[in-house]
Amino acid sequence: QVQLVQSGAEVKKPGASVKVSCKASGYTFTNYGISWVRQAPGQGLEWMGWISVYNGNTNYAQKLQGRVTMTTDTSTSTAYMELRSLRSDDTAVYYCARHVRGVRGISWYYYFEYWGQGALVTVSS
Amino acid sequence: QSVLTQPPSVSAAPGQKVTISCSGSSSNIGNNYVSWYQQLPGTAPKLLIYDNDKRPSGIPDRFSGSKSGTSATLGITGLQTGDEADYYCGTWDSSLSAVVFGGGTKLTVL
After folding, report:
1. In this prediction, what percent of chain A has a pLDDT beyond 70?
2. Rounded to an integer, what distance in angstroms lies between the CA atom of residue A80 and that of residue B6?
């Protein structure tokens, strides 16, 4: 069965960086892309971006451009999300998700089939 | 402020039916496919509906999705106490070049 297992909770100081991992199993890692979604305490879902595991292409949310980097290691079927220059409002649960995306005619489809269990990142001085 | 608009909460009695709306615009719902997610307390979201109205295997047919114009709707029939959760709609926004979500709707089964 498809599983995405994420690294554990982290506590970071403002200005620091965090790198969250997401180890995939149960499917061919290079056949699907990975997206990252975060959720601040008591808030809704926020899309952070995606990475094509096949060729390494990335697309980041505009508000995170310059601070986020998504990578993969196909030898270990692991995806990584690094966020730099952390601020208090980056405190959130960070989820990886296997996504399905594409276009039919002019209409895009993009959904998250499987999710990791989440990793809480707390930014506090 | 979310790009997609959902009611903050809905409620209904066990066995009843409830609908959750998701309103957007031509750059998102109007021209792209909608998905819905269920988030039980303290857990990761789970895919309920994709491509507006399709259910992944294992999702009971009590859950249904529809889309009309720039709005989408999630329907749940035969409500159970285990359906108490937050529900989110999501889609691609062609103007923002980003996935956008609704703010979430908390379902209470009275």
Report:
1. 100
2. 31
